[in-house]
Amino acid sequence: MSLSSQVFPVFWYQDHVRLIDQNHLPNSYEIVEISRCDDMATAIKTMIVRGAPAIGVAAAYGMYLGAREIATDDRDSFLAQMESVAQKLRETRPTAVNLFWAIDRMLKTARQTVGSVSSIKAVLLTTAQTINAEDIATCEAIGEHGLAALPPQPAQLRLLTHCNAGALATAGYGTSLGVVRSAWQANRLERLYADETRPRLQGARLTAWECVQEGIPVTLITDSMAAHCMKRGLVDAVVVGADRIAANGDTANKIGTYSLALVSKAHSIPFFVAAPLSTVDFKLETGVAIPIEERDPSEIYQIGQTLICPAGTEFYNPAFDVTPADLITAIITEHGAMQPADLIQLKAKQLG
Ligand code: MRU
């Protein structure tokens, strides 16, 4: 089957990285050219590029760009300076573990490559491009496994998703939206309900945009409408992405995912998490220790330039929450769909 999605949010072009500027979608489609590591760090922080796997790919290229800027032929000095490059990128966003996974893989490659500094730099570019290509193949595999894991009835499913775990959040195709794409191509999708996803509206701006590009029927709802839709029998299954999954299956994803899992359970609706193995942090036994990013309060006290609450209000803006494993029907990775408790069996595969 030929898989669709022509959306590639991070890619290498000639001598620089090109990013789709996700802050401007859906109103304008703009490409940002990144040639310096500092600019890549800013692009990740300001969410020009966002979504756990896409952040990982962007960070891998950021590592190469940082390596390219180091002006020494001395291997030890080069490797020491690469640690500073890595640190700069690590400080961009705390929750998505793919960022740290990609940085560590690039550092390990640098250390293990024998030869001159210029040959290490060349290998780093190839490695970043490999991580980029692997992520697309991984998402396509997640889509196929997810399709097989979806409930057999009804023949045409009404799925619901939160945030954007689509092509824009990966190197291409998407994780949870990859499952939706595969269902659409297999004629198993009636429609997708997309939560708008307050406060940054990734569901409204990005998931709906991807669906409209490809003619996938999409109905936008506000986050608070999901329970009502479930009660009315409009939703057959929920599929979401993940930013970090602990070894026991507890899953951090965009704020609002936890409440969605609770209402899914209350309505006996299967709740799937779709993510690559690089999103699993086997170092964490449970989700309690997953760092939760808190973002600027302006994301919640204003819409556009309009203030939506009185002066004197205080704010709390966590960007992610943790869904306990017992609310998750199955976790879908490139290695198949499994119950959260079985995830630990994949540990050896991640270590290679
Ligand atoms: O803050 P964001 O937009 O980077 O958050 C994105 C999400 O929470 C996604 O669901 C997650 O990263 C999975 S992307 C395939």
Structure description:
By secondary structure, the protein is an alpha/beta fold. The chain has 2 domains: 3-138, translation initiation factor eif-2b, domain 1 (Four Helix Bundle (Hemerythrin (Met), subunit A), Up-down Bundle), CATH 1.20.120.420; 144-351, Rossmann fold (3-Layer(aba) Sandwich). It contains 11 helices and 16 strands. The strands form 4 sheets. A 7-stranded mixed β-sheet has the order 6-5-4-7-10-15-16, sandwiched between helices. Helix 2 runs antiparallel to helix 3 (75-90), helix 4 (97-112) packs antiparallel against helix 5 and helix 5 (117-149) crosses helix 6 (176-185). The structure holds 5-S-methyl-1-O-phosphono-5-thio-D-ribulose (MRU). Residues 50-53, 96, 163, 165, 169-170, 175, 202, 241-243, 253-254, 319 line the site of 5-S-methyl-1-O-phosphono-5-thio-D-ribulose (MRU).
